[in-house]
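Schema walkthrough. Field components (list of strings):
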Amino acid sequence: MNLIDQIKALKEEALRLIDKAVDLEKLNSVRVEFLGKKGKLKAILKTLGKLSPEERKQVGQLANTVKEELEERIKQKEEELKKQALAEELKKNKVDITLPHSWIEVGSAHPVISTMFEIVETFVAMGFSVAQGPEVEKEAYNFDMLNIPPDHPARDMQDTFFINKEGYVLRTHTSPVQIRAMLTQKPPISIVAPGRVYRKDADPTHSPMFHQIEGLLVDEGITFRDLKGILKIFLETTFGKDIPIRFRPSYFPFTEPSAEVDIGCTVCKGSGCRVCKDTGWLEILGCGMVDPNVFDAVGIDWERYTGFAFGLGVERIAMLKYQINDIRLLFDNNMKFNHQFKGIR
Amino acid sequence: MKVPYSWLKEFVDIQVSPQEVADRLNETGIEAVAYPFGERIENIVVGKILSVGKHPERDKLLVCKVSDGEREYQIITGATNVFPNGKVVLAKEGAVIQGKTIKPVKFGSLQSEGMLLSLEELGIGEDAEGILILPDEVKEGEDPNKLLGLGEDWIIEIEITPNRGDALSVKGLAREVGAVFGLKKRDKKPSVEIPQDDSIKIQVLTDKAYRYRGVIIQGVEIKPSPFDIQLKLIKAGQKPINNVVDITNYILLEEGQPLHAFDLDKIEGEVVVREAKEGEKVITLDGEERSLKQGDIVIADSKKVIAIAGIIGADNTKVDSNTRNILLEGAVFDNIQVRKTAKRLGITTESSYRFERGVDIQNLPNAQDRAVELILQTATGKATGYKDIYTKPYIPKEITLREKTTKRVLGIDIPKEEAKELLERLEIPTEITEGGTVSKIPAFRSLDLEREIDLVEEVGRLKGLNKLSETYPKIPTQAFRKSDEFNFDRRTRDFFKDIGFDEVVSYTFVDEEIYSILGLPVPPIRIKNYLLKIQSIMRDNLAVSLIKTLQYNLRFQNRDLKIFEISSTFFEDYEEIRLGLLATGKINRGFDFTKGETQYSTTQNWDFLKIKGAVESYLKMLGLDGVKYTQIDLPYINPYEGAKVSVNGVEVGYVGRIHPEKAEMLEIPKDTYIAELKLRCVGRTLNNQECGSDYLFNLWKNKDTVVFQELPKFPAVKRSLAFEVDEDLQVDKLLEAVKNFSPKIEAVELFDIYYLDENRKSVAVSVLFRDKEKSLSDEEVNQLVEQLVKDLQNRFNLKLRT
Ligand SMILES: [Zn+2]
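Field assembly_structure (string):
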């Protein structure tokens, strides 16, 4: 076999072994065996001296090409083996991607507070400002200045908690915030006042503590039709564009004319059910034009200004929205209840 | 109030269905529902009781023989008001009573072949006490369905608002229905003639009896009322008693005028209407002894109180089966006084209910004489005279209603001609004047209609508020105020919700016991008329509520809790809105990446630094720096794992671990962590002057705005230093001393602490040096470090570790 054939055979064998190498170590030993200082290619080249210069050149060139080819092939194989090794390494350290995460769980919102904030924001977006008042309230603001004199049957409408502080009660509604606003601001006034209120009442639909939102708009030229407009926007925003709305004349000492506002039952869509007591309607809020006596009490001229006021119970709306059937669940704070309200605002 | 539709029709020719009447009443301001009076029942018949005997084996049962005219039935009953010859409603086999089909049933050895029915079982009343006894003139074998009108008549049940006492009668409701439908109401006029007799011994000594009219009727015979009167009362939800009492009730329902009949022969001397003496006692018709107070109005004779005016009669002058002569009282008393007395005594009667809401003083003679006429018809006798004490006759108030006022309030034009027409439908005489109308308010609306606005409401509700179209007002932009408190609360709420706390809302009232367990003084505000004693104290911190919430959840095996609440706490002169946090158990239930061969849990438990972290992140979110933690002294917080929190020298709350002793007493986990921050204050005065400004809200609102600082131009040099210090040195003090040593120290970071022995520990920090003007050389830094260590050694018992 001449040298050229020997080199060709050597190349074939080397290529075969490179392909067969299963790891970097094996590959390296192939490199050493064929291309090393004491390798097979070197060994062949050592015999070059016996050849004619012509042949020497030819064989030398071939040997170089083979060397480069083999080196290239080894490099490729090396890359391959590294990739393989990394893939194995990664696989070895794989994660069960379905395991529970270790980041914080998001907290749950309370359905009443959530509903309250949402409603307030609706009115804030319409241009109302948020006002507040204390829960231990002056009797004068809670009753007398709202045109509810002592011994008036209207005081019976709201069973009051009395406290050990003369002249104060736990406020029975958020309406005293109206008085506070009108005593501290000159018209025009536009406020919405959320807050806790208290009545001596406890059953599946009444809680001794609950939340209300009060609204008041006082300016020149405000009419009952304006009241209807504002409430329509609010009710449609809260219950949907097509919600039926009706205004029933009613009585509140601090507004006249007064009305109760009903919406079509959201549960049965008006056909009658337990929630709406088969009437197809749900009482949702009370409202009316501010009574001139209230303006008198706070020193606003009724001949110049008119105003409207409304008040709504937050629990009722939250219970309708989430179909909660017992008001007491709202204040028990059993986490099995609260955790149902993740992902609401 | 329940008004039979047939009765209503006696006063107004209404042609529409009862449901439509109810609907229209709702639309115009009186809550009303209409439902049929009973329902037709098959297999019932009028029976005559032939005999009543005791059940041989069962003590409480009676055995009746009852005839329906064709055959005899043996009926076993538990009712005690059965008697021979009594006429009753007999349910025979196959009748369906309250959903159950009647079948022969054995009681001991005897068989009952049916059932005798009460009003409740007939589906027309709430009275289940005793069976219904029909009048004698009814014949056995008749059809009770026809007799009682079951399923034929309708009931309109109304509920009035407190201002509409005028509608609390059949006649009053007829007037309202007439106004709504544009129909004219009829009146019933008595044809009896009673002579005026001022010698009747009645005297009024109080100005709280606006009118007092007594009629003497002699020779009456007390017996059951005629069936038609009884039936009307039954339909209206009342129980027939005897002819005289029934007729006073009948007139009360029909005319809205409460009346009271005294047994004249039981009255001693003169009848006086006066104020009660303090402590005066009377046994009222319901058998209760009542103690009176000065100010209460009573009717008395020369010896005793015979009625509490407008509320209830006394037992001592009650009409009974032996009564022969009566004094029939018709009166109008002061509504506020009746209300006060009734409320104090805890009595509500049909009479007091109406007096409190106003009774038509002008209609009194008409109503009373109608009663007299009916009494004479049903109880015979003779009305011998009346005396009417009415010193200040009613003068109708004149009220002007301007067209422009209607427009200003309702937003629609109602021409004066139309206003007149609407008001006159309500029987309010009205004249047209320049720019409006003038009305003379009749007595039946005198409490309700006092001002122009009251008439605006009347025309408004008759027009129908529901029919007004909406307009959209301009919200006055001058009134706009930034809602800072609301925004602050919202940001706080969002923050804690988003970092994993669950929002709770708890009652603001708690019990005294939790305060004594926690070792805290009882807060100042308490509810006097609490529903439950355990809900009688207005809390002055949120911890009490958060702990209660934890205790409640432990009952349901909810052991891992991280909750927050933003709510009120109550003090003598103001309220604080606070944030409360409570955390216990596991923070999360997560897993981490593979380490070696095992997937391991990274579930972490709460500890002091974690809850402190929640608080501190919140303060960072608000943009507040200068947070300090100092020694805490709260009886329910572990003093070695708790701290007061202050921001720029203002104490804003605390954070810490429950004291283990308290945890044991409260039966809650010892690893319970609580934090409370004072968010803001709500005063009770108009300008919040009692509040001060030591609240996070004020700090947040008044904090400096962020001002951009030039980015550093020269590189920093970092050095790590380890100090040996006393074990009880608070690391914060060391870090602060390092940081404040030189303006060239940009930052200090703690990276390691370990304890060398009982008394000493090693604290390792990395310090970042930077000069704003130039690059620092190693030399300079070395010098700074040297000076720093010297300085620290002057302050602390400290050694540099190498
Ligand atoms: Zn419904």
